[in-house]
Amino acid sequence: SYMEPHTLGSLAERCGGMDVKRFSYLFRKRTGFFPIDYVIRQRMLQARRLLAASSYGVARIAESVGYADAHYFSRLFRKYEGCSPTEYRRRLGNCPPWFR
């Protein structure tokens, strides 16, 4: 699950104990992303959904997508989304896009 703490080694281990370098190479070849970048993108996708559809605070959303540190989560969110989680929510009016 994307919520669990992951390292490249733990992801490679989940794939039958594959060598880390081989796993990373094959994963990137197949998806176009490095494994950890893919996990982060999945976490950000879920965070966007929660920000749009819930009233949970940023700290709770950070924790629910696998980040114990809300400040670190906010920095990553800004890097990947171009704005803070609070600004993202404000722009949406906290209304899920599929209801617009």
Write up what this structure looks like.
α3 crosses α6 and α4 (about 60-65) crosses α5 (about 70-80). This protein has about 100 residues and is mostly helical. It has 6 helices and no strands. Helix content is about 65%, strand content about 0%.
Low-confidence parts: 96-100
Strand proportion, as a percent range, falls in under 5%
Form type = elongated
Instruction: State the order of secondary-structure elements, H for helix, E for strand.
Output: HHHHHH
Tell me the distance between the termini.
30 Å
Q: What gyration radius follows from the Cα positions, in whole Å? A: 15 Å
Helix content: 55-70%
Q: Give the averaged pLDDT, no decimals.
A: 88
Number of strands: 0
* Structural class by sheet pairing and helices: mainly alpha
Give the number of helices.
Answer: 6
Biggest pleated sheet: none
Task: Give a brief rundown of this model.
Helix content is 65%, strand content 0%.
Keywords:
100 residues; mainly alpha; 0% strand; disordered C terminus
List strands and helices in order, with pairings.
Layout: H1 8-14, H2 20-31, H3 35-53, H4 58-64, H5 70-81, H6 85-92
